Structures are given as structure tokens and as C-alpha cells.
Amino acid sequence: MPVWQSAMNIAEMVFHLSDTLPKKEDYGLTSQIRRSALSISANIAEAFGREHTLEKINFYYVARGSLTETRNHLFYGKRVGYFDEDNAQELDVILKELHNDLNKIIRSFKNNLPRKKLIDV
Fold it and tell me: What SS3 class is residue 117?
């Protein structure tokens, strides 16, 4: 799946970006941003493995939530001067693209849900 591949690329980029964080951030920002970034691909994989559409949609929502959490950590890292502006900007562009792709997938699944018929009484 292209979105899973993109999410894995993001996790790898975050790993390398966070590799330069100070040692004092090992249990703080380093851990948080890596876990949220890896959670994106994990939840996409979980969605792919689910049989029922509503379950799939739910896991794509969770992946999208992990993505926005990763962006938040990225913004914080930029604000406190931990991340290079150019590297952070490149990653943010990719995160935005994946966010849009996840929205398209969610919309597609939602549009294909069976519609309940109204019963005339």
C-alpha cells in the first residue's frame, strides 16, 4: 500500500531527525515523536488487516491522529531549536500529503458503506 510505504518513510525520517536530539530528551521528545511516527504505519497496517469497514475506518482515523501528534512534536522541536528548519519543513510536507491521502481513504470507505433504507410506516 502506498500510504503504508509513505508512513514507513516518515517513521524512518523521524528516527534520523530525532537521532540528534539531546540525551536529556531520550524519554521525552525523542521517545514521543518516534512512537507517534511509527504508530501511523502500524495503524494503517491494522486497518488493512481488518475485515469490517467500520473497523478499517476507525484505524485510519487513529493513524491520522498519530500523524497529527507527530506534526505537533515536530512543531515543538522546531520552536525550541532542536530541528533544522529545512529538514523539518521537508518532513511536514510529506506529513501533509499523507494526511490528505488518509482523508481520501476514509472518505472512500465511508462513501461505500451501505445506506440504511428508510422504512415507510
Answer: coil
* pLDDT at 51 (0 to 100): 94
| Mean pLDDT on 60-80 | 97
Q: What is the pLDDT of residues 30-50, one digit of tens each?
A: 999 999 999 999 999 999 999
Q: Return the pLDDT at 118.
A: 53
∠ CA(11), CA(13), CA(17), 5° rounding? Answer: 115
Residue with cell 491494522: 46
- Alpha-carbon span 77 to 18, nearest angstrom: 9
What is the CATH T-level fold of the domain 2-111, as seen in this structure? de novo design (two linked rop proteins) (1.20.1440)
Query: 41 vs 20, 57, 70, CA distance in Å?
Result: 23, 14, 12
Select from 73, 67, 33, 54 the least CA-distant residue to 114.
54
SS3 content of the chain, % helix, strand, coil (to 5): 80, 0, 20
